[in-house]
Amino acid sequence: MPLKVAIIPVTPLQQNCTLMWCTDTMQGVAIDPGGDIDAVQDAIAELGFTLVKALLTHGHFDHVGGAMDLAERTGAPIVGPHKDDEFITTKVVEGGQKFGLGGGRDISGNMWLNDGDTVEFGNLTLDVLHTPGHTPGHIVFYNAEAQVAQVGDVLFKGSIGRTDFPRGDLDTLITSITTKLWPLGDDVAFVPGHGPTSTFGEERATNPFVGDRALKG
Ligand SMILES: [Zn+2]
Ligand SMILES: [Zn+2]
To answer: Around 105, how many Cα atoms within 13 Å sit in the side-chain half-sphere?
Structure first.
């Protein structure tokens, strides 16, 4: 399996910047480089791959704040999220200030992604799923071969994303999880935007918000 994954928690919010790379070609991506770009670049150098893309799951500042710096330093283009998050990606600095956090930069020149698109690096392909609810333009990246997903702030181990931010919606989020993520299969391992990894099967069995029992109750 040529896909390798490493997680670098960044920003005071400990956002999981996720590095994925292809061991055949040593080309890779950084998903959600929210900040602490020196640490992200050090990790990439240590792992020894070449960064070819910076991918964004959604527009919140802790996920995207460092993307412009990373893109400028490496030449890697910024890809994602879905255009429905443009109202956030263009106001990253303002978003950080609401949490009393600086250091982020507004995003410009990024490529938007749609449901069904694919992102390629090395010999690997990530499928793009549009999963609104936490934000309207949230997307998930999924590698079918390795059955690995990066789900941003859609789903966490034992929890789900907040829906009290502008244009968040709980019913939409639950629909995204049950109609876009669960059909990928119980064996899929996922990296959430914050906290430990899990599998879809584990969450269906135990998650108090979107587990099978919770939704039937
Ligand atoms: Zn978020
Ligand atoms: Zn987050």
So the answer is: 16
SS3 of residue 176 by DSSP = helix
Span from the CA of 194 to the centroid of ligand 2 (angstroms): 6
Ligand nearest to the CA of 162: 1
pTM of the model: 0.98
Distance of CA 81 from the midpoint of ligand 1 (Å)? 12
Residue 151 alpha carbon to ligand 2 centre in Å: 10
pLDDT, tens digit, for every residue of 52-100?
A: 999 999 999 999 999 999 999 999 999 999 999 999 999 999 999 998 8
Range of the domain at 162: 3-216
Pairing mode, if any, of strands 139-143 and 124-130?
Answer: antiparallel
For position 142, which CATH number holds? 3.60.15.10
Distance 210 CA to ligand 1 centre (A): 18
Q: Is 132 helix (H, G, I), strand (E, B) or coil?
A: coil
Q: Which residues of the chain have pLDDT under 70?
A: 217
Q: Residue 4 Cα, ligand 2 centroid: separation in angstroms?
A: 22
The number of domains in the chain is 1
- Please state, in angstroms and as integers, the Cα–Cα distance from residue 157 to each residue in 6, 128, 152, 154, 189, following that order: 18, 21, 12, 11, 11
The residues with which 79 forms a beta bridge, in sequence order, are: 55, 111
Q: How close is the Cα of 171 to the center of ligand 1, in Å? A: 17
Tokens for 27, please give them: 């080309």
